[in-house]
Amino acid sequence: MNLHIEDFKEGQVTVLKLAGEIDAYTAPQLKEKLLGLLREENADVQVDLEKVNYMDSTGLGVFISGLKTANEVNSSFTLVNLQENVYRLFNITGLNDVMKIENTIRGGM
């Protein structure tokens, strides 16, 4: 499956709306887009994962890179609307303690 990426502004926040799967094939596309948005100093990015039904460790790596980039230029990003199976990856790895996640846990598809 592919990953659909849409970005738009809501006030001062850039929303990155994702749909599909984040894996070794789609992660490079996501990484390029996310890091490009976060490289702007003081950027505020909200990553909406509501329609992401699968993510592997490659996806986690993208968000770790995003966190490092954001910290370097005083930007921030928040993960929102994670499905239960995707949130579980962040929880198991402890990344939910270092990344900002505003979660409305949704059941798997």
TrEMBL record:
Q: Which residues form the STAS domain?
A: 3-109
- Has UniProt tagged this entry with the keyword rRNA processing? no
Query: What Gene3D superfamilies does UniProt report for this protein, alphabetically?
Result: STAS domain
* UniProt-listed Pfam families: STAS
Q: Per its UniProt record, what CDD domains does this chain match?
A: STAS_anti-anti-sigma_factors
**What family name appears in the similarity comment?**
Belongs to the anti-sigma-factor antagonist family.
From the Swiss-Prot or TrEMBL record, give the protein name.
Answer: Anti-sigma factor antagonist
